[in-house]
Amino acid sequence: MIDLQRRGLVMAAGGVLAASAVNPAWASTGRKLGYAIVGLGGYGLGRIIPQFQNCQHSRLVALVSGDPAKARKVAQEYGVPERGIYSYSDFDRIRDNPDIDIVYICLPVFMHAEYTIRAAQAGKHVMCEKPMAINPAECEQMIAACRKAGKKLMIGYRSRFEPHNVEAIRLARAGAIGTIRYFRSEHGFVAGDANTWRMKKAQSGGGSLMDIGIYALQAARYMTGEEPVAVFAKETTNRSDPRFREVEDMIDFQLEFPSGAIGSCMSMYSANRNQFVLMGDKGRIELEPATAYSGQRMWVGQERSDKTEVKPPPGPYANQWVGQLDHMAQCVMQNREPLVPGEEGLRDIRIIEAVYRSAREQKRIVVRS
Question: What pTM did the predictor assign?
Fold first, then answer.
Protein backbone atom coordinates (compact mmCIF):
# COMPACT_ATOMS: atom_id res chain seq x y z
CA MET A 1 0.00 0.00 0.00
CA ILE A 2 1.21 3.48 -0.86
CA ASP A 3 2.26 5.56 2.14
CA LEU A 4 -0.13 8.48 2.52
CA GLN A 5 0.89 9.52 6.02
CA ARG A 6 2.80 12.59 4.90
CA ARG A 7 0.08 14.01 2.71
CA GLY A 8 -0.48 17.08 5.03
CA LEU A 9 -1.84 20.37 3.77
CA VAL A 10 0.71 21.50 1.20
CA MET A 11 -1.47 23.66 -0.99
CA ALA A 12 1.45 25.20 -2.82
CA ALA A 13 2.26 21.81 -4.34
CA GLY A 14 -1.14 21.95 -6.01
CA GLY A 15 -0.47 25.49 -7.04
CA VAL A 16 -3.04 27.09 -4.77
CA LEU A 17 -2.14 30.29 -3.00
CA ALA A 18 -2.97 29.65 0.64
CA ALA A 19 -4.70 32.33 2.63
CA SER A 20 -2.05 34.66 3.95
CA ALA A 21 -1.54 38.13 5.26
CA VAL A 22 -2.56 40.77 2.75
CA ASN A 23 -0.70 43.88 1.77
CA PRO A 24 -0.64 46.16 4.85
CA ALA A 25 -2.10 49.02 2.79
CA TRP A 26 -5.23 46.95 2.18
CA ALA A 27 -5.28 45.33 5.61
CA SER A 28 -5.33 48.70 7.36
CA THR A 29 -8.61 49.58 5.65
CA GLY A 30 -10.24 46.17 6.20
CA ARG A 31 -11.85 46.59 2.80
CA LYS A 32 -12.92 43.59 0.76
CA LEU A 33 -12.34 43.94 -2.98
CA GLY A 34 -15.45 44.64 -5.01
CA TYR A 35 -16.65 42.42 -7.86
CA ALA A 36 -18.98 43.33 -10.72
CA ILE A 37 -20.70 40.23 -12.12
CA VAL A 38 -21.35 40.51 -15.86
CA GLY A 39 -24.19 38.21 -16.86
CA LEU A 40 -27.05 37.03 -14.65
CA GLY A 41 -27.55 33.63 -16.26
CA GLY A 42 -27.60 30.30 -14.49
CA TYR A 43 -23.92 30.26 -13.58
CA GLY A 44 -23.37 33.88 -12.57
CA LEU A 45 -26.61 34.11 -10.62
CA GLY A 46 -26.93 30.53 -9.42
CA ARG A 47 -23.32 29.68 -8.58
CA ILE A 48 -21.12 32.76 -8.24
CA ILE A 49 -23.25 35.46 -6.63
CA PRO A 50 -24.44 33.36 -3.64
CA GLN A 51 -20.82 32.62 -2.67
CA PHE A 52 -19.82 36.15 -1.75
CA GLN A 53 -21.35 35.66 1.69
CA ASN A 54 -18.63 33.04 2.31
CA CYS A 55 -15.72 35.14 1.06
CA GLN A 56 -13.10 36.75 3.31
CA HIS A 57 -11.59 39.11 0.76
CA SER A 58 -14.33 39.65 -1.83
CA ARG A 59 -17.73 41.31 -1.98
CA LEU A 60 -20.43 41.87 -4.59
CA VAL A 61 -20.77 45.55 -5.52
CA ALA A 62 -22.15 45.65 -9.08
CA LEU A 63 -24.26 43.80 -11.63
CA VAL A 64 -24.30 43.99 -15.42
CA SER A 65 -27.37 42.65 -17.21
CA GLY A 66 -29.51 43.15 -20.27
CA ASP A 67 -32.63 42.74 -18.13
CA PRO A 68 -33.11 45.85 -15.92
CA ALA A 69 -35.96 44.35 -13.88
CA LYS A 70 -33.97 41.20 -13.14
CA ALA A 71 -30.90 43.24 -12.23
CA ARG A 72 -32.89 45.39 -9.80
CA LYS A 73 -34.42 42.32 -8.17
CA VAL A 74 -31.03 40.64 -7.73
CA ALA A 75 -29.52 43.90 -6.47
CA GLN A 76 -32.20 44.20 -3.79
CA GLU A 77 -31.71 40.59 -2.73
CA TYR A 78 -27.92 40.88 -2.41
CA GLY A 79 -27.59 44.46 -1.21
CA VAL A 80 -26.11 45.95 -4.38
CA PRO A 81 -26.75 49.73 -4.52
CA GLU A 82 -28.62 51.31 -7.42
CA ARG A 83 -25.41 52.94 -8.66
CA GLY A 84 -23.97 49.43 -9.06
CA ILE A 85 -26.49 48.35 -11.72
CA TYR A 86 -25.33 48.53 -15.34
CA SER A 87 -26.59 47.47 -18.75
CA TYR A 88 -24.40 46.18 -21.56
CA SER A 89 -24.76 49.47 -23.40
CA ASP A 90 -23.48 51.57 -20.49
CA PHE A 91 -20.99 48.97 -19.25
CA ASP A 92 -18.04 51.31 -19.74
CA ARG A 93 -19.36 53.54 -16.92
CA ILE A 94 -17.82 51.05 -14.50
CA ARG A 95 -14.69 53.17 -14.96
CA ASP A 96 -16.25 55.77 -12.67
CA ASN A 97 -17.18 53.38 -9.87
CA PRO A 98 -14.30 53.08 -7.36
CA ASP A 99 -16.08 50.25 -5.54
CA ILE A 100 -15.44 47.94 -8.50
CA ASP A 101 -11.99 46.35 -8.40
CA ILE A 102 -12.61 43.15 -10.38
CA VAL A 103 -15.03 42.29 -13.18
CA TYR A 104 -16.18 38.68 -13.49
CA ILE A 105 -17.29 37.79 -17.04
CA CYS A 106 -20.07 35.15 -16.91
CA LEU A 107 -21.24 35.50 -20.52
CA PRO A 108 -21.48 33.22 -23.58
CA VAL A 109 -18.01 32.51 -24.96
CA PHE A 110 -18.28 34.79 -27.99
CA MET A 111 -18.66 37.78 -25.64
CA HIS A 112 -15.65 37.01 -23.43
CA ALA A 113 -13.06 38.90 -25.46
CA GLU A 114 -15.12 42.06 -25.92
CA TYR A 115 -16.04 42.46 -22.25
CA THR A 116 -12.62 41.48 -20.94
CA ILE A 117 -11.01 44.12 -23.14
CA ARG A 118 -13.59 46.76 -22.21
CA ALA A 119 -13.19 45.97 -18.50
CA ALA A 120 -9.41 46.33 -18.73
CA GLN A 121 -9.76 49.61 -20.62
CA ALA A 122 -12.06 50.78 -17.82
CA GLY A 123 -9.23 50.16 -15.38
CA LYS A 124 -10.53 46.97 -13.77
CA HIS A 125 -8.96 43.57 -13.11
CA VAL A 126 -10.72 40.67 -14.87
CA MET A 127 -11.89 37.16 -14.02
CA CYS A 128 -13.23 35.44 -17.14
CA GLU A 129 -15.13 32.18 -17.25
CA LYS A 130 -13.78 29.24 -19.20
CA PRO A 131 -13.33 28.57 -22.05
CA MET A 132 -11.38 31.80 -22.34
CA ALA A 133 -12.47 32.75 -25.86
CA ILE A 134 -13.54 31.49 -29.29
CA ASN A 135 -9.99 31.19 -30.64
CA PRO A 136 -6.34 31.85 -29.71
CA ALA A 137 -6.31 35.25 -31.42
CA GLU A 138 -9.05 36.53 -29.09
CA CYS A 139 -7.18 35.12 -26.07
CA GLU A 140 -4.05 36.98 -27.13
CA GLN A 141 -6.03 40.22 -27.49
CA MET A 142 -7.46 39.79 -24.00
CA ILE A 143 -4.02 39.19 -22.50
CA ALA A 144 -2.58 42.19 -24.35
CA ALA A 145 -5.40 44.48 -23.22
CA CYS A 146 -4.98 43.56 -19.55
CA ARG A 147 -1.21 43.86 -19.79
CA LYS A 148 -1.47 47.29 -21.42
CA ALA A 149 -3.85 48.45 -18.69
CA GLY A 150 -1.63 47.00 -15.95
CA LYS A 151 -4.48 44.77 -14.75
CA LYS A 152 -4.62 41.10 -13.81
CA LEU A 153 -6.48 38.50 -15.84
CA MET A 154 -7.59 35.17 -14.37
CA ILE A 155 -9.60 32.36 -15.95
CA GLY A 156 -12.37 30.70 -13.91
CA TYR A 157 -10.97 27.19 -13.60
CA ARG A 158 -12.71 26.44 -10.30
CA SER A 159 -11.36 22.86 -10.00
CA ARG A 160 -7.90 24.24 -9.28
CA PHE A 161 -9.34 25.28 -5.89
CA GLU A 162 -11.29 22.07 -5.17
CA PRO A 163 -9.59 20.13 -2.29
CA HIS A 164 -9.65 16.67 -3.94
CA ASN A 165 -8.03 18.01 -7.10
CA VAL A 166 -5.49 19.98 -5.09
CA GLU A 167 -4.58 16.92 -3.02
CA ALA A 168 -4.37 14.73 -6.13
CA ILE A 169 -1.89 17.17 -7.65
CA ARG A 170 0.13 17.20 -4.43
CA LEU A 171 0.28 13.41 -4.29
CA ALA A 172 1.33 13.16 -7.93
CA ARG A 173 4.07 15.78 -7.47
CA ALA A 174 5.26 14.04 -4.29
CA GLY A 175 5.80 10.79 -6.22
CA ALA A 176 3.07 8.86 -4.41
CA ILE A 177 2.35 6.78 -7.54
CA GLY A 178 5.83 6.86 -9.03
CA THR A 179 6.61 8.02 -12.56
CA ILE A 180 3.52 9.21 -14.41
CA ARG A 181 2.74 7.02 -17.41
CA TYR A 182 -0.92 7.46 -18.34
CA PHE A 183 -3.88 9.74 -17.72
CA ARG A 184 -7.48 8.93 -18.64
CA SER A 185 -10.51 11.18 -18.33
CA GLU A 186 -14.10 11.11 -19.54
CA HIS A 187 -16.22 14.22 -19.18
CA GLY A 188 -19.75 14.66 -20.46
CA PHE A 189 -23.40 15.31 -19.82
CA VAL A 190 -26.62 14.95 -21.77
CA ALA A 191 -27.26 18.26 -23.52
CA GLY A 192 -30.88 19.31 -23.76
CA ASP A 193 -32.09 22.42 -25.55
CA ALA A 194 -30.98 22.52 -29.19
CA ASN A 195 -31.57 26.27 -29.26
CA THR A 196 -29.23 27.29 -26.46
CA TRP A 197 -26.17 29.39 -27.30
CA ARG A 198 -23.98 26.39 -26.49
CA MET A 199 -25.32 24.67 -29.61
CA LYS A 200 -24.50 27.64 -31.86
CA LYS A 201 -20.91 27.40 -33.04
CA ALA A 202 -20.52 31.13 -33.60
CA GLN A 203 -21.44 31.78 -29.97
CA SER A 204 -19.80 28.79 -28.25
CA GLY A 205 -16.77 28.14 -30.43
CA GLY A 206 -17.60 24.42 -30.45
CA GLY A 207 -19.55 21.71 -28.71
CA SER A 208 -18.78 19.35 -25.86
CA LEU A 209 -15.02 19.87 -26.06
CA MET A 210 -15.25 23.62 -25.44
CA ASP A 211 -17.87 23.23 -22.73
CA ILE A 212 -17.20 20.10 -20.65
CA GLY A 213 -14.23 18.45 -22.36
CA ILE A 214 -12.01 21.35 -21.39
CA TYR A 215 -12.13 20.00 -17.82
CA ALA A 216 -10.58 16.74 -19.02
CA LEU A 217 -7.93 18.66 -20.93
CA GLN A 218 -7.13 20.92 -17.98
CA ALA A 219 -6.90 17.93 -15.64
CA ALA A 220 -4.56 16.12 -18.02
CA ARG A 221 -2.23 19.11 -17.89
CA TYR A 222 -2.33 19.80 -14.16
CA MET A 223 -2.21 16.14 -13.13
CA THR A 224 0.75 15.22 -15.32
CA GLY A 225 2.43 18.59 -14.79
CA GLU A 226 3.32 18.63 -18.47
CA GLU A 227 2.26 20.37 -21.67
CA PRO A 228 1.21 18.15 -24.61
CA VAL A 229 3.42 18.22 -27.68
CA ALA A 230 0.99 16.51 -30.06
CA VAL A 231 -2.64 15.36 -30.29
CA PHE A 232 -4.68 12.84 -32.23
CA ALA A 233 -8.48 13.03 -32.22
CA LYS A 234 -11.63 11.45 -33.63
CA GLU A 235 -15.12 12.96 -33.62
CA THR A 236 -18.38 11.00 -33.52
CA THR A 237 -21.50 13.12 -34.05
CA ASN A 238 -24.98 12.33 -35.29
CA ARG A 239 -25.72 15.37 -37.45
CA SER A 240 -29.38 14.38 -37.81
CA ASP A 241 -29.82 15.18 -34.11
CA PRO A 242 -31.12 18.78 -33.85
CA ARG A 243 -28.68 19.46 -31.02
CA PHE A 244 -25.64 18.74 -33.17
CA ARG A 245 -26.26 20.56 -36.43
CA GLU A 246 -23.44 22.98 -35.69
CA VAL A 247 -21.34 21.53 -32.86
CA GLU A 248 -19.81 18.16 -32.00
CA ASP A 249 -21.20 15.57 -29.64
CA MET A 250 -18.39 13.10 -28.87
CA ILE A 251 -14.72 13.74 -29.43
CA ASP A 252 -12.00 11.31 -28.36
CA PHE A 253 -8.52 12.80 -28.15
CA GLN A 254 -5.08 11.55 -27.20
CA LEU A 255 -2.34 13.78 -25.81
CA GLU A 256 1.38 13.06 -26.12
CA PHE A 257 3.57 14.50 -23.35
CA PRO A 258 7.34 15.15 -23.47
CA SER A 259 8.08 12.48 -20.84
CA GLY A 260 6.40 9.81 -22.92
CA ALA A 261 3.24 9.82 -20.78
CA ILE A 262 -0.04 9.59 -22.69
CA GLY A 263 -3.35 11.29 -21.98
CA SER A 264 -6.58 9.75 -23.26
CA CYS A 265 -9.67 11.94 -23.00
CA MET A 266 -13.30 11.71 -24.07
CA SER A 267 -15.71 14.63 -24.28
CA MET A 268 -19.42 14.17 -24.92
CA TYR A 269 -22.82 15.83 -24.95
CA SER A 270 -24.82 12.57 -25.00
CA ALA A 271 -23.79 10.75 -21.80
CA ASN A 272 -23.17 11.63 -18.16
CA ARG A 273 -19.60 11.08 -16.98
CA ASN A 274 -17.09 12.94 -14.81
CA GLN A 275 -13.89 11.15 -13.79
CA PHE A 276 -10.17 10.86 -14.21
CA VAL A 277 -7.48 8.31 -13.44
CA LEU A 278 -3.76 9.08 -13.22
CA MET A 279 -1.50 6.02 -13.46
CA GLY A 280 2.15 5.76 -12.46
CA ASP A 281 4.57 2.87 -12.31
CA LYS A 282 3.86 2.48 -8.58
CA GLY A 283 0.13 3.15 -8.35
CA ARG A 284 -2.89 5.19 -9.40
CA ILE A 285 -5.02 8.15 -8.33
CA GLU A 286 -8.72 8.13 -9.21
CA LEU A 287 -11.35 10.84 -8.82
CA GLU A 288 -15.05 10.30 -9.51
CA PRO A 289 -16.72 12.65 -9.81
CA ALA A 290 -13.58 14.62 -10.51
CA THR A 291 -14.58 18.15 -11.48
CA ALA A 292 -18.26 18.29 -10.59
CA TYR A 293 -19.86 21.06 -8.53
CA SER A 294 -19.87 18.72 -5.51
CA GLY A 295 -19.52 15.14 -4.33
CA GLN A 296 -15.88 14.51 -5.28
CA ARG A 297 -14.32 11.23 -4.11
CA MET A 298 -10.71 10.09 -4.48
CA TRP A 299 -8.94 6.73 -4.25
CA VAL A 300 -5.23 5.99 -4.24
CA GLY A 301 -3.61 2.56 -4.53
CA GLN A 302 -1.51 0.13 -6.51
CA GLU A 303 -4.29 -1.92 -8.09
CA ARG A 304 -8.03 -1.53 -8.60
CA SER A 305 -8.60 -4.08 -5.85
CA ASP A 306 -6.03 -2.47 -3.56
CA LYS A 307 -6.91 1.18 -3.19
CA THR A 308 -7.84 3.47 -0.33
CA GLU A 309 -10.34 6.28 -0.37
CA VAL A 310 -8.54 9.47 0.53
CA LYS A 311 -10.29 12.45 2.08
CA PRO A 312 -8.22 15.57 1.50
CA PRO A 313 -7.46 18.05 4.25
CA PRO A 314 -9.77 21.07 4.18
CA GLY A 315 -8.48 23.93 2.11
CA PRO A 316 -8.22 27.57 3.14
CA TYR A 317 -11.49 28.38 1.35
CA ALA A 318 -15.11 27.40 2.00
CA ASN A 319 -15.45 25.86 -1.49
CA GLN A 320 -14.02 26.02 -4.99
CA TRP A 321 -15.98 29.15 -6.01
CA VAL A 322 -14.95 31.04 -2.91
CA GLY A 323 -11.41 29.85 -3.60
CA GLN A 324 -11.22 31.43 -7.01
CA LEU A 325 -12.96 34.64 -5.94
CA ASP A 326 -10.75 35.20 -2.91
CA HIS A 327 -7.61 34.01 -4.69
CA MET A 328 -8.07 36.67 -7.36
CA ALA A 329 -8.71 39.31 -4.69
CA GLN A 330 -5.57 38.25 -2.81
CA CYS A 331 -3.53 38.37 -6.02
CA VAL A 332 -4.67 41.94 -6.60
CA MET A 333 -3.97 42.94 -3.00
CA GLN A 334 -0.54 41.28 -2.97
CA ASN A 335 0.32 42.06 -6.60
CA ARG A 336 0.79 38.37 -7.38
CA GLU A 337 0.19 36.44 -10.58
CA PRO A 338 -3.03 34.35 -10.42
CA LEU A 339 -2.74 30.57 -10.36
CA VAL A 340 -4.65 30.40 -13.65
CA PRO A 341 -3.79 33.56 -15.62
CA GLY A 342 -4.84 34.38 -19.16
CA GLU A 343 -1.88 32.49 -20.54
CA GLU A 344 -3.33 29.30 -19.02
CA GLY A 345 -6.60 29.81 -20.85
CA LEU A 346 -4.72 30.53 -24.07
CA ARG A 347 -2.83 27.23 -23.80
CA ASP A 348 -6.08 25.28 -23.53
CA ILE A 349 -7.60 27.03 -26.54
CA ARG A 350 -4.48 26.37 -28.63
CA ILE A 351 -4.66 22.67 -27.72
CA ILE A 352 -8.40 22.57 -28.43
CA GLU A 353 -7.73 24.12 -31.83
CA ALA A 354 -5.22 21.34 -32.52
CA VAL A 355 -7.72 18.69 -31.36
CA TYR A 356 -10.39 20.00 -33.73
CA ARG A 357 -7.89 20.11 -36.58
CA SER A 358 -6.77 16.55 -35.88
CA ALA A 359 -10.37 15.28 -35.89
CA ARG A 360 -11.05 17.17 -39.11
CA GLU A 361 -7.91 16.04 -40.94
CA GLN A 362 -7.71 12.63 -39.26
CA LYS A 363 -4.03 12.91 -38.47
CA ARG A 364 -1.61 13.64 -35.63
CA ILE A 365 -1.15 17.37 -35.03
CA VAL A 366 1.85 18.97 -33.31
CA VAL A 367 0.72 21.47 -30.67
CA ARG A 368 1.97 25.02 -30.95
CA SER A 369 4.08 25.88 -27.92
Answer: 0.92
